[in-house]
Q: What sequence folds into this?
């Protein structure tokens, strides 16, 4: 039972880490695109 809960905690941590990385990439991409459109509109 303990092993299962540890596994579950690790799984939750992994999901959180992946979500954070994806969110970070997404915001960076949006910022890049925003900067790009800003440069084009100048």
A:
């Amino acid at each position: 039972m303990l092993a299962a809960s540890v596994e579950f905690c690790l799984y939750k941590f992994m999901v959180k880490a992946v979500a954070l990385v994806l969110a970070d990439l997404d915001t960076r991409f949006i910022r890049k695109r925003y900067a790009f459109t800003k440069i084009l509109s100048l």
Summary: Residues 2-41 form the longest helix (40 residues).
